[in-house]
Specification:
Protein name: Calcium-transporting ATPase
Family: Belongs to the cation transport ATPase (P-type) (TC 3.A.3) family.
GO molecular function: ATP binding; ATP hydrolysis activity; metal ion binding; P-type calcium transporter activity
Subcellular location: Endomembrane system; Membrane
Strand content: 5-15%
Helix content: 40-55%
CATH architecture of one domain: Up-down Bundle
Distance between the termini: 53 Å
Oligomer: single chain
Keywords: ATP-binding, Calcium, Calcium transport, Ion transport, Magnesium, Membrane, Metal-binding, Nucleotide-binding, Transmembrane, Transmembrane helix, Transport
Number of helices: 39
């Protein structure tokens, strides 16, 4: 569809009016209809517009075949009814961001001080300076120092504003990526097309299914057990059943939680319910339903709102969303009482963010800096006052220039010592990390997730589609009292009675989602492409293997003619479809979990295709001889069954319990889902990185255990626990219908590695319980990986939620923090590395800057005590401030992560930013640098044969002596920047430096500029040119910090930064309790230690 230039408003209005005349209904009428809804809406739909058929005619569409897809028709609909796009909020301009930054108290106070001092620097009461005429004095350049203070702060403000602007632009780009990734199925020209949601127009017929997030408003034209979660718009906690007659209205921003169907689009973009709410709020992106997610910065909230998917806007308008935490996945008939109290049963401390830690540290340093500032002023001012006023008893207005000089020195030291760049460094590091993670196919939706990933101690994986390839095939089948174990390679050898084969082919064809199909392979592909539900595709492949044609059967039984459909959901665990056959027989086909379906069977087809009784003994026999062996081979077992009803005595289809009963078993299929090739390596790296991996699956315990062994989640000799949901819930509750008890839960979770037959609530309880556990000194940090709608509660509750970008549902993506764009699990490892690298980058900058701050503060104080002035002049300090705090911080943030980051334990949740090793380096280098500078200050003139540059009678003039002090200090810190690249006691400080051109580029440029300042800085920087020999001495002192760093590495520490070798495996601290024999022997509970599973590599 070609895009057109935006016309003027008058032309646009006339075009819209002209286009409206081509349809029998206006956009205002459709908007009013969707706003009415309920019984009144149904009445208006039927009486005013003639029902669905009347709307169909007015909108010139076809409820069966959809739109024609003609570009002119689509353009006319866009002109008449609008485009399905909500205009984004205008971004803040760079000027607005600059003004916002200027309001920060970090910048307001220094600017005020500098402005006052700038005015005072021109104040000479007698028309000249205090010092004798003809001598080069510092007072002559006092105004330059004030200007440089203002320039330094201005640069910080501009950098902050530019960084915020870049960040907003970056997140708008991410939002665009998310919007482009969102696609929806529409029917045009009788064909199903997957198009971007922005291309949906009024009159389109959309296919909707379980897990979809509706992007438009419309009405149901065909439904199969369709239930919708409208809590984000209406606050209604129950799932709303939708059908053509009772409640056909579907609203944008709501979730399809059960069933499937088709809808006719009536409102898009700003005319939809989501668009109307956005206009009421005055902002297109507002987000309020992730209260448990703490963003890293204030600006991150803005970014998060911009990236949040469209549906979250409505959540801000409805404040009662928190009461429906589990409602998303709980069916209507589920007892809600046990769900409402889940959040109250677990109490845990929220994780403090990196930004909060940095802000607290910056406040502490600022507090100390203010006291040093006052102390320096007192040390300089008190002796001066005593000498001039008490001993000489004289007052001269010229003293003001001396006082101004002291204030300039004190304020300059304060500006340099206050770590304004700490939050800035964190913001730069975070933005850089987000950008790099995107290149590694990790789409970050919540900024705080970047830092949290490096802290995670537990990852909970779903199995199907995440640990497995999700490209499934029927590997084994039990039919006609025979067990065929190699279906894929011996299809032609399988002998199944003709009527049984007919049941299989017809049952699979109609009792699967019609959106599931197998496309023929292309020239580049060797395997057929599976579209839709992969389990259903495997069954359709089995139909093809039996020479069946599911397309012909589906044409014979279109969805519109189904009598009733019980769609699959996580509680039902089966799907049933009722059809009327050509002989008038009403037949129900059912498929689902083998154990569940077999319990509903009272007959089975034998080797001749005849119906014979199926008893409890037969059930136990099939479980032991067929289902358990299939599960031990890692297969998912699906049972196919049917039931015939008399057309004259049809049951109440709403009575599902009695309808889906007394079935006849047709066959049992064992579906193979191979492990993703990258999974074992990813699991091994997670274990070595100190992360415990757990698998949560709906498969039975044998299949789950086999899969976990293949993935490396459990080993043959592990003391690992494999539980089924029923046994898990029994162990964590003292009463069968009671609440979860944390003390009982803590006896289970440290051992638990696999939870089988789990429900969405089990996942939620497990995640919440681990986070609330007090077993370990610091709270466990939990990540959850899912792709389905049933994973949404656990994804939302976890510290970090990962969702699949390709096969994940919209609900899962919305609940997640990070989306894997390529569905490759290696991206998780890269995300962990980048997050840990983020912490390391901040640690490197902290070690570097705090060393400078300590040396500057102590040097100024000691200098004030000894020579009644700071050895480092104000202009020199501000040069250090600009280069060291800004440029070097940028260099540290661009370090590339390495595999070495995965050989350490996760950062603890409450671990301080400054480790003991870092503190040793900071104090050690500060002492060394102070010693060198004091040595040059006191003994430099004699050792280097230069004039003593210390002030005489408080008169300062630039000299080689003080220039060497300044030069040595800068060079020592330049070389110390190389030391600070390693913050965990590594000895090879040059490792990987060649991979960071930004770092060594900034280092070289800073070194060259330092040479220029010293040699040609003249009085502006209070320097004089040094000789070649003096430069050699300065370089020797600078290089010496590299050797001193190795000496510091030899100093033993009582407690080291936690590290582990590549072969070490970290496990969380286990409680001092063992499972007794009675517990171990219960059904559904298995310890893997000393057990053989018959698994072969």
């Amino acid at each position: 569809m070609a895009t057109k230039k935006k016309p003027t408003d008058d032309h646009n209005n006339s075009s819209s009016e002209h286009a409206r005349r081509g349809f029998g209904i206006s956009v205002q009428e459709l908007e009013t209809l969707m706003g009415t809804r309920g019984r009144e809406g149904i009445k208006e739909l039927n009486e005013t517009y003639g029902g669905l058929n009347g709307i169909e005619q007015k909108l010139k569409t076809n409820l069966i075949n959809g739109l024609s897809g003609d570009n002119n028709d689509l353009s006319a609909r866009i002109a008449a009814f609008g485009r399905n796009k909500i205009p984004p909020k205008p971004p803040r301009t760079i000027l607005r961001l600059v003004l916002d930054a200027l309001l920060d108290v970090r910048f307001v106070r220094p600017i005020m001080f500098a402005s006052i001092l700038f005015a005072l620097s021109f104040y000479y009461p007698s028309g000249d300076t205090f010092e004798p005429e003809g001598k080069p004095t510092e007072a002559n350049v006092a105004w330059i120092e004030c200007i440089i203070i203002i320039i330094a702060i201005s640069i910080a403000v501009l950098v902050t504003a530019f960084n915020d602007w870049t960040k907003e632009r970056q997140f708008r780009d991410l939002q665009s990526i998310i919007e482009l990734d969102q696609k929806f199925n529409v029917i045009r020209e009788s064909q199903v097309h997957q198009i971007p949601i922005k291309d949906i127009v009024v009159g389109d017929i959309c296919q909707i299914k379980y897990g979809d997030l509706l992007p438009v408003d419309g009405v149901v034209v065909q439904s199969n057990d369709l239930k919708v979660d409208e809590s984000s718009l209406t606050g209604e906690i129950d799932l709303i059943k939708k059908d053509e007659s009772e409640d056909p209205f579907l609203l944008s921003g709501t979730h399809i939680m059960e069933g499937n169907g088709k809808m006719l689009v009536l409102a898009v973009g700003e005319r939809s319910q989501m668009g109307i709410i956005n206009k009421l709020l005055g902002a297109p992106k507002v987000e309020n339903n992730d209260n448990n997610k703490q963003n890293t910065t204030t600006d991150a909230d803005v970014s998060k709102r911009q990236v949040k998917l469209e549906s979250t806007t409505a959540d801000a308008a409805v404040n009662n969303q928190d009461t429906t935490k589990l409602q998303e996945i709980i069916p209507d008939n589920t007892n809600q009482a046990n769900n409402d109290d889940v959040p109250d049963r677990f109490k845990f401390e929220e994780r403090p963010s990196l930004q909060a830690k940095l802000t607290e540290l910056a406040n502490q340093i600022t507090y100390a800096g203010r006291r040093i500032f006052i102390l320096i002023i007192l040390v300089l001012l008190v002796p001066f006052v005593i000498e001039e006023f008490i001993q000489r008893h004289e007052w001269n207005n010229k003293f003001c220039s001396r006082v101004v000089g002291y204030l300039i020195t004190g304020i300059t030291v304060f500006v340099v010592c206050v770590p304004d760049s700490l939050p800035l460094a964190a913001t730069i590091s975070l933005a850089y990390t987000v950008k790099k993670m995107m290149k590694d196919n990790n789409l970050v939706r919540h900024l705080d997730a970047c830092e949290t990933i490096g802290n995670i101690t537990t990852i909970c994986f779903d199995k199907t589609g995440i640990l497995t390839t999700n490209c499934m095939t029927v590997a084994q089948v039990y039919a006609g009292e025979k067990h065929w174990k190699n279906v894929e390679n011996s299809t032609k050898e399988i002998i199944i009675p003709a009527n049984t084969k007919e049941f299989i082919i017809e049952g699979i064809s109609v009792n699967t989602n019609y959106s599931s199909k197998i496309l023929p392979s292309t020239e580049q592909e060797t395997l057929s492409k599976q579209v839709g539900n992969k389990s259903e595709c495997s069954l359709l492949g089995f139909v093809d293997a039996l020479d069946g044609h599911y397309d012909e059967i589906r044409t014979r039984y279109p969805e519109e003619k189904f009598i009733h459909v019980y769609k699959f959901n996580s509680a039902r665990k089966n799907m049933s479809t009722i059809i009327r056959r050509s002989d008038s027989t009403v037949r129900m086909y059912t498929k689902g979990t083998a154990e569940i379906i077999l319990k509903k069977c009272n007959t089975i087809l034998n080797r001749n295709g005849e119906i014979i009784p199926f008893s409890t003994i037969d059930y136990d026999h099939l479980i032991q001889t067929v289902i358990e062996p299939m599960a031990s081979d890692g297969l998912r077992t699906i049972c196919l069954a049917y039931r015939d009803f008399s057309p004259n005595r049809l049951p109440d289809w709403n009575d599902e319990t009695n309808v889906v009963d007394q079935l006849t078993c047709i066959c049992i299929c064992g579906i193979e889902n191979s492990i993703r090739p990258e999974v074992p390596n990813v699991i091994a790296k997670c274990r070595n990185a100190g992360i415990t991996v757990r698998m949560i699956t709906g498969d039975n315990i044998n299949t789950a255990r086999s899969t976990a062994l293949k993935c490396g989640i459990i080993l043959h000799n592990d003391n690992a626990l494999v539980l089924e949901s029923k046994e898990f819930n029994r162990r964590i509750r003292s009463k069968s219908d009671g609440e979860v008890e944390q003390n009982l839960f803590d006896r289970i979770w440290p051992y638990l590695r696999v939870l089988a037959r789990s429900s969405p609530q089990d996942k939620y309880v497990l995640v919440r319980g681990i986070m609330a556990s007090k077993i370990n000194p610091t709270r466990e940090v939990v990540a959850v990986f899912g792709d389905g709608t049933n994973d949404a509660p656990a994804l939302s509750e976890a510290d970090v939620g990962f969702a699949m970008g390709i096969q994940g549902t919209d609900v899962a993506k919305q609940a997640s923090d990070i989306i894997l764009v390529d569905d490759n699990l290696n991206s998780i490892i890269k995300a962990i590395m980048w997050s840990r690298n983020l912490y390391d980058s901040i640690a490197k900058f902290l070690q570097f800057q705090l060393t400078i701050n300590i040396v500057v503060a102590l040097c100024a104080f000691i200098g004030a005590c000894i020579v009644k002035d700071s050895p480092l002049r104000g202009v020199q300090l501000l040069w250090i401030y600009l280069t060291m705090n800004t440029l070097i911080s940028l260099a540290f943030t661009t370090e590339v992560p390495t595999e070495e980051l995965l050989k350490r334990k996760p950062y603890e949740r409450t671990q301080p930013l400054i480790s003991r090793t870092m503190m040793k380096k900071i104090i050690g280098h500060a002492i060394y640098q102070l010693a060198v500078m004091l040595f040059i200050l006191l003994a430099g003139p004699k050792i280097f044969n230069i004039d003593d540059g210390r002030p005489v009678d408080s008169i300062f003039k630039p000299s080689e002596h003080f220039t060497m002090i300044f030069n040595v200090f800068v060079l020592m810190n330049l070389f110390n920047a190389i030391n600070c690249r390693k913050v965990h006691g590594e000895k090879n400080i040059f490792h990987g430096i060649s991979k960071n051109p930004i770092f060594y580029g900034i280092w070289i440029v800073t070194f060259i500029v330092q040479i220029v300042l010293v040699q040609y800085g003249s009085f502006t920087f209070s320097c004089v040119a040094l000789t070649f020999q003096q430069w050699i001495w300065c370089l020797l002192f600078g290089v010496s910090v590299l050797l001193w760093n190795q000496v510091l590495n030899l100093i033993p520490m009582t407690r080291h930064m936690p590290t582990s070798s590549a072969s070490d495996v970290y496990e969380p601290t286990l409680p001092l309790v063992e499972l007794d024999r009675e517990e171990q022997s219960r059904p559904g509970a298995n310890l893997t230690k000393d057990k053989s599973f018959g698994y072969q590599e």
